[in-house]
Recover the amino acids of this structure.
């Protein structure tokens, strides 16, 4: 199935230009991945599946004015969300050099002016509080909240792409969270709307 059809089938509302940019990003990642081994997604179809996984929260979350993605890796979900949200300022925190090189190149090649790549760990990032902080497969929920505390305020929301351990992780968080867990296939999207 084409990427456009997959996006439409999930009820994700994107601009035509964003879909073209996502296709360009997918082929670029496919090409780089053969040499640099940036992601386990080896085929275009596997990359498309990761793009859909990254985009799916757009069906239930509020669009943020600014977004920090922690440990973006090969671009999931941060770079994909930057393409889908052209009016959102997006900062990608990624410490690994070869991934940083790819993210910077992709941002220029695909034409994503709203994205900035920070080649550092999230603890070293300085910025005003973000509207949304996202992360996929980086660390547990409590540690992510602690590591990003200096980049958040009472209005910051969180979007964590999780597996089955998410329920145990929520129990480990001391403060009261206002959250939803949206399940799709093997994915649990943890959307935190506020920390008390």
């Amino acid at each position: 199935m084409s990427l456009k059809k997959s996006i439409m089938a999930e009820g994700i509302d994107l601009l035509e230009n964003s879909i073209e940019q996502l296709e360009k990003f997918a082929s670029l990642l496919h090409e780089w991945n053969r040499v640099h081994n940036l992601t386990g997604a080896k085929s275009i179809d596997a990359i498309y599946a990761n793009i859909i996984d990254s985009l799916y929260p757009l069906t239930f979350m509020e669009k943020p004015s600014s977004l920090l993605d922690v440990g973006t890796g090969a671009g999931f979900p941060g770079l994909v969300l930057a393409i889908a949200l052209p009016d959102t300022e997006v900062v990608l925190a990624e410490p690994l050099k070869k991934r940083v090189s790819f993210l910077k190149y992709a941002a220029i090649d695909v034409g994503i002016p709203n994205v900035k790549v920070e080649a550092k760990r999230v603890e070293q990032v300085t910025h005003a509080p973000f509207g949304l902080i996202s992360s996929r497969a980086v660390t547990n929920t409590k540690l992510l909240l602690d590591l990003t505390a200096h980049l958040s305020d009472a209005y910051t929301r969180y979007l964590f792409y999780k597996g089955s351990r998410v329920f145990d992780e929520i129990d480990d968080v001391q403060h009261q969270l206002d959250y939803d867990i949206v399940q799709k296939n093997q994915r649990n999207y943890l959307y935190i709307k506020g920390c008390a």
Q: What stands out?
A: The domain at 3-195 is CATH 3.40.50.150 (Rossmann fold).
